[in-house]
Design brief:
The chain is an alpha/beta fold and about 350 residues long. It has 14 helices and 8 strands. It has an 8-stranded mixed sheet with strand order 6-5-4-3-2-1-7-8. α4 packs parallel to α5. The relative contact order is 0.17.
Length: about 350
């Protein structure tokens, strides 16, 4: 066992974000992300116009998924308050940011989730909800499909695979069956029917230490098989690379795949993905209102550049536009192969 892995195997080694960052920094990789970006002519990395305000409303979740980069679960108590949500709405009202991406945890479990959706759609913004599907079957959430449909919320639903074994391996026994039931409820109110205008996107990430396959061909397979097996339809499939953060990082360490996986990401660096990185068009808001360049930086506690506003209460689009994007070795996950972000493959 290498020195890096032995250091990572001590009791509760990755309980803090600083420990995760230190572990990634110790890996004997060929180069760091800033050097790779500079070689691609994209350094320093700076934002373009913000098109999406991504709001993480908390880490409470009804599931405890094996590869969760948020480390969400039923025992988490980090919840965004309505006061902080109101600051997000105020920021939206002061700008033309067209899209709101609500995430968690299971964002629907925040008691003010529906208030946030209602306020954002009242401003004429397109709202996306990052849904784990099984939350639709929990107490008090049975009417979520109808609520989504009334507000024309785009449902971006995570499902590891179109077959039960792979899904339950990553998410727990019985999750696949519940997910299929939830998808059928969404289809019943018009989601996944192109004529309805109610967009349903599925999100998959590899089970194991692999890069995702080609998104277009995988989408065709998923559409064929979910229709054949369950009569389910959806609009698009996003393939997202597993990020070496939190619970997935722990799995990489425990399974002995950390160094090979990181080397795979570095060697697959694709300069053509740099222009489409989500950190260039997305501003991420943490459950406590702190600001980040992306959801992954948020989970590593890497706030926006020191010269920019660091809390949504101090939101200033001009100062944020002039910041440098904060990067680390985990960023190779977004630039490997076809690239990856919250909207799936980049190229």
């Amino acid at each position: 066992m290498s020195r890096v892995l032995s250091l990572a195997s001590r009791d509760a080694p990755l309980a803090s974000t600083s420990a995760q960052r230190a572990l990634l920094a110790r890996l004997p990789l060929a180069r760091d992300f800033d050097r790779a970006a500079a070689a691609a002519g994209a350094w320093p990395l700076i934002p373009s116009a913000v098109t999406t305000l991504q709001i993480n409303v908390g880490k409470l979740c009804n599931q405890t998924c094996r590869h969760c980069h948020v480390d969400a679960g039923p025992d988490r108590r980090e919840i965004m308050s309505r006061e902080t949500m109101a600051l997000c709405v105020r920021a939206l009202a002061s700008t033309g940011i067209p899209a709101v991406d609500i995430t968690g945890g299971a964002p629907e479990l925040n008691p003010d989730f529906r208030w946030l959706v209602t306020e954002a759609t009242a401003l004429g913004r397109h709202v996306m909800d990052r849904c784990n599907l099984t939350v639709l079957l929990t107490a008090g959430q049975a009417d979520l499909p109808e609520f989504f449909a009334r507000h024309h919320v785009e449902v971006v639903a995570s499902l590891p695979h179109y077959r039960a074994a792979n899904t339950d391996t990553q998410r727990g026994d019985g999750v696949y069956e519940k997910s299929i039931a939830a998808l059928k409820r969404l289809n019943a109110v018009g989601y996944g029917d192109a004529r309805s205008g109610l967009r349903l996107v599925l999100v998959t990430n590899p089970v194991g230490a692999y890069l995702p396959p080609a998104q277009a061909s995988l989408e065709a397979d998923w559409k064929r098989e979910l229709l054949r097996l369950h009569g389910i339809t959806f609009d698009a499939l996003y393939c997202i690379t597993n990020m070496p953060i939190s619970r997935y990082l722990e799995w990489l360490v425990e399974s002995g795949h950390l160094e090979p996986y990181m080397e795979r990401l570095v060697s697959a660096f694709n300069p053509a993905t740099m222009a489409g990185l989500m950190c260039r068009t997305t501003l991420s808001v943490g459950w406590d209102g702190r600001l980040y360049d992306c959801d992954f930086n948020q989970m590593l506690d890497l706030e926006v550049d020191a010269g920019a506003p660091r809390h949504i209460r101090d939101f200033d689009p001009d100062r944020l536009a002039g910041r440098r994007i904060v990067v680390g070795r985990h960023c190779f996950g977004c630039t490997a192969g076809a690239g990856s972000g919250c909207g799936g493959s980049i190229k």
